[in-house]
Design a protein that fits this description.
It is a single chain. By secondary structure, the chain is mostly beta strands. The chain has strands spanning 2-3, 8-14, 21-30, 33-47, 50-59, 64-68. It has a six-stranded antiparallel beta sheet, with no helix packed on it. Strand 4 (33-47) and strand 5 (50-59) form a beta hairpin. The relative contact order is 0.14.
């Protein structure tokens, strides 16, 4: 694993044929001990000329989550109010 500036180590795994990212393993060190996580990237689809994984699974010692993209929109219009500072 390679150290990063955040106290986190990560290792990236790529498919030898396609060159696409297939797995990301991390180990984070904190005051409470080490915390590991694995993310798997699957079901790549070509969207506007970019290969995007439409299925991302993340597993930790405590639980697991799966995210599935149903649509992708590049350069979408976003209302600037979404980024406005909340009033106090």
């Amino acid at each position: 694993m390679w150290p990063s500036f955040t106290g986190q180590q990560e290792r990236l795994y790529f498919d030898a044929t396609s060159g696409l990212l297939t797995r990301r393993s991390t180990l984070t060190e904190s005051l409470f001990g080490a915390y590991s996580s694995d993310m798997y990237f699957e079901n790549y689809q070509l969207v506007d000329g970019v290969m995007i994984p439409t299925l991302v699974s993340q597993f930790t010692p405590d639980d697991g989550t799966v995210r599935k993209l149903t649509s992708v929109e590049h350069n979408a219009k976003v209302d600037p109010a979404v980024f406005a500072k909340p009033e106090k």
